[in-house]
Amino acid sequence: MPSSAPVRRAVANEVNRLRGSGLIVEAGSGWGTLGIHLAKRCKEWRVVGIENSPFPLRVSQLLAWISLGRGSKSRAAFRKGNIYTWSYADANLVVCYLYPGAMQHLGSILHRELRPGTRVISVCFALPGWSPEKVVTCRDLYRTKIYIYEVE
């Protein structure tokens, strides 16, 4: 399900508050709306969206090309892949908007692969067993929560 405009803005604000740069991996990038928004609003970061479903993947690639132009590969790229087998070792930040079962499975993978200090931002669903350093409540219809974590 695509993230709403208020949620996309809130996630971008949190990314920009990190005052860093590097690679954002979006686990389960779907239609690409969040990843493209981050590529536009978080200039110091590169975004790689990982999606397993072929149709949303192609749509996200097309939207990135339209929204970001020909040089979009340097700002945002969407790749076919399985979020449970993808290597997160190079990620400086992982962003996800996944259902609770996926969060459970992904949480153990991220705990194992991410370096200390790496951040994780989860939209709507918390990572089971993790303690967020911050929770933001969006001003959208559903009062969507965004969970921000730092890997220890």
Number of strands: 7
Give the full name of the CATH homologous superfamily: Vaccinia Virus protein VP39
Order of helices and strands: HEHEHHEEHEEE
Q: Strand fraction band?
A: 15-25%
- SS element count, helices: 5
Widest sheet, order of strands: 3-2-1-4-5-7-6
Q: Can you tell me the CATH topology?
A: Rossmann fold
Task: Tell me the number of structural domains.
Answer: 1
Radius of gyration: 14 Å
- Quickly give the CATH architecture: 3-Layer(aba) Sandwich
How does this model look, in words?
This protein is of the alpha/beta class and 152 residues long. The chain has a single domain (5-150), classed as 3-Layer(aba) Sandwich (Rossmann fold), CATH 3.40.50.150. Helices cover 36% and strands 24% of the residues. It has five helices and seven strands. It has helices at 5-17, 33-41, 54-68, 72-75, 100-113; strands spanning 22-27, 45-51, 76-80, 93-96, 119-123, 134-137, 145-150. It has a seven-stranded mixed beta sheet. α1 crosses α2. The protein is globular and about 40 Å long.
